[in-house]
């Protein structure tokens, strides 16, 4: 049996200090910088609210990222105490100094860096701030008292819903701060929630901070749609946009509308990833993509009933030669082979790293037609072909031909037609597990023979039981 690790002197000092919480705030004035992180960790773990308030109000670093602490100790009272510590006036007059905090990060997407430093420590953190020294010696001008403190959050808004107490308190605190607090949201997911509540939250957010936006369309009235699109047009730094079940209403060619979504889409100069799914785009993909002035790196158009004209436009667009990820799953591409689909694969061959053509109604003849072009994608790392009715022989042929793609490591292959029936391009009915196992053994043997044991070939996961 292994012996538990002994606590460090800093940890012992932190617990001793917090055991008499009323005495903690005055002592902070004498702290050196290296004492603050372990004491705050202990206070967060033990839920010492008054100590947390005082620690935040005397915090000697510009950054405080609480993601790792929230995961270990998910306590809303502790989080609320941290927020309460953002008040301008110190809680205790015995510790009158002000905090240097500029960014309070409440997101859970934390990295393995000290929680009081940004992830790019050397680039963003003044060198002298990382060294232990007396708090009294920190220059007050570093605080930038006129600048608001940024609160970083990720929001998943889904309804019918009721805001939890912490989020309600957070929004209220930002609204009442008169600009001293700025609510920044890097990831925003919106789905099925009261429209009035959404508009209110968007008005509280610093929309320039949003980099990833996911919208599952639920608008019940044209007026709601127009108001939301107007808000969307203010999000200028968006890197990733996901629209699912979006009801596109394309204006006649050449017609401009200030409230139309496409006019705002053209203003997203930083957009790199676009995901469209379960929407009717037939013959109109050019209206969407031609609005974007900078090339995309990721394009996912799933189950959008694409036509051959859409795929042809994509192959000739400015995006084709820059794409690293392309997902056309759920679209019937069978009648686009070898023409538009092969032309598209040829256009993306130099940059493409991830390709998904799952459930595209492709058969053996289609696979044989696009294989030469597919093998030109020399930087391909992953390939998805599940739910296409391929035979066992075609799968073995696919492996033989793609084994030369040395960067290809992940292949999701369909269940062969010898192992199950297909209906409307989807595997249907029971799977003959014995035959499927035989195919898997053959694929593994061929991988060994081709000296590509580093490639992982796997079938789709089994469908959940009803």
What does this structure look like?
With 466 residues, the chain is an alpha/beta fold. The chain is 33% helix and 15% strand. The chain contains 17 helices and 16 strands. The strands form two sheets. Strands 1, 2, 3, 4, 5, 6, 7, 8, 9, 10, 11, 12, 13 and 16 form a 14-stranded parallel sheet that branches. Strands 14-15 form a two-stranded antiparallel ribbon. Helix 15 links the parallel strand 11 and strand 12 (382-384). Helix 1 packs across helix 3. The model is unreliable at 89-95 and 120-145 (pLDDT under 50).
Q: Quick one: overall form?
A: globular
CATH class of the domain at 286-461: Alpha Beta
Q: What is the terminal-to-terminal distance?
A: 45 Å
User: DSSP helix count?
Assistant: 17
Average the pLDDT over all residues and give the rounded result. Answer: 81
CATH architecture of the domain at 286-461: Alpha-Beta Horseshoe
Determine the oligomeric state from the structure: single chain
Characterize the biggest β-sheet: 14 strands, parallel
Strand content: 15-25%
The share of residues in helices is: 25-40%
GO cellular component, one term: cytoplasm
Keywords: Leucine-rich repeat, Repeat
Organism: Loxodonta africana (African elephant)
Protein name: Leucine-rich repeat-containing protein 14
């Amino acid at each position: 049996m292994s012996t538990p690790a002994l606590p460090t002197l800093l940890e012992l000092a932190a617990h001793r200090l917090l055991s008499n919480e009323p005495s903690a705030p005055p002592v902070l004035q004498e702290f050196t910088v290296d004492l603050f992180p372990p004491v705050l960790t202990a206070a967060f773990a033990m839920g010492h609210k008054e100590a947390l308030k005082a620690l935040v109000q005397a915090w000697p670093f510009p950054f405080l990222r609480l993601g790792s602490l929230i995961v270990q100790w998910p306590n809303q009272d502790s989080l609320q105490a941290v927020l309460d510590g953002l008040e301008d006036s110190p809680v205790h007059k015995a510790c009158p100094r002000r905090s240097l905090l500029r960014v309070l990060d409440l997101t859970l997407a934390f990295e393995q860096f000290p929680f009081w430093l940004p992830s790019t420590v050397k680039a963003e953190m003044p060198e002298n701030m990382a060294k232990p020294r007396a708090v009294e010696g920190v220059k007050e001008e570093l605080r930038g008292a006129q600048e608001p403190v940024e609160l970083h959050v990720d929001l998943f808004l889904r309804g019918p819903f009721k805001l939890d107490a912490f989020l309600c308190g957070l929004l209220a605190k930002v609204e009442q701060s008169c600009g001293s607090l700025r609510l920044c949201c890097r990831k925003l997911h919106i789905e099925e929630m009261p429209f009035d509540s959404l508009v209110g939250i968007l008005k509280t957010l610093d929309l320039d901070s949003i980099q990833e936006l996911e919208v599952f369309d639920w608008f019940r009235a044209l007026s709601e749609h127009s108001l939301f699109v107007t808000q969307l047009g203010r999000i200028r730094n968006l890197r990733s946009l996901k629209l699912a079940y979006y009801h596109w209403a394309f204006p006649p060619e050449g017609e401009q509308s200030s409230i139309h979504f496409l006019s705002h889409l053209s203003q997203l100069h930083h957009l790199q990833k676009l995901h469209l799914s379960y929407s009717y785009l037939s013959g109109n993909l050019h209206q969407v993509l031609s609005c974007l002035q900078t090339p995309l790196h990721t394009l996912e158009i799933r189950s959008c009933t694409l036509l051959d004209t859409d795929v042809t436009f994509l192959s000739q667009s400015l995006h084709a030669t820059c794409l690293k990820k392309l997902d056309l799953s759920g679209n019937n591409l069978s009648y686009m082979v070898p023409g538009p689909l092969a032309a598209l694969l040829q256009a993306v061959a130099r940059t493409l790293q991830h390709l998904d053509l799952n459930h595209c109604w492709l058969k053996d003849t289609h696979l044989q037609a696009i294989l030469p072009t597919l093998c030109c994608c020399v930087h391909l790392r992953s390939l998805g072909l599940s739910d296409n009715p391929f035979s066992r022989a075609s799968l073995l042929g696919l492996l033989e031909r793609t084994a030369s793609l040395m960067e290809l490591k992940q292949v999701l292959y369909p269940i062969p037609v010898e192992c199950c029936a297909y209906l409307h391009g989807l595997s249907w009915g029971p799977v003959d597990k014995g035959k499927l196992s035989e195919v898997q053994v053959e694929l593994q043997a061929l991988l060994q023979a081709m000296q590509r044991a580093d490639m992982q070939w796997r079938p789709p996961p089994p469908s959940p039981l009803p």
